[in-house]
Fold this sequence. Notes:
Layout: E1 10-17, H1 21-31, H2 39-44, H3 50-69, E2 76-94, E3 100-116, H4 120-128
Antiparallel strand pairs: 1-3, 2-3
Amino acid sequence: MDTTTSNPRIEASAKYIRMSPHKARRVVDQIRGRAYEQAPMILEFMPYRVCDSISQLLSSAAANANHNFGLSKTDLFIDAIQVDGGSFLKRIRSGARGRTYPIHKPTCHITIVMRMDSGWRNKISLRRFGK
Length: 131
């Protein structure tokens, strides 16, 4: 964690989320670079299961910013967010003639890096929505 107070780097990570990394990346790409206030609204109306895990992680990162640096949630934007593949949960499915077939259930690790907003980023992201 960056301890300088000029523009602190706030991190939060969630590991071993039971979701395919490919499916999680399609949600993460929608909120990368957005202000913190916009991201939960976007996630709330997306129909994907991973949105709940990402919104919990966002609120955790905002709580870290408030507790560790005393920053307000309105001053934050998502600087970087990445999804990495985790290990597979390996299960067995029984097949014909006494055989077994492997089932691989993927997991992923999500890391969010937030920074303090300098003001210009909010104006750009509001223009995207036509406001």
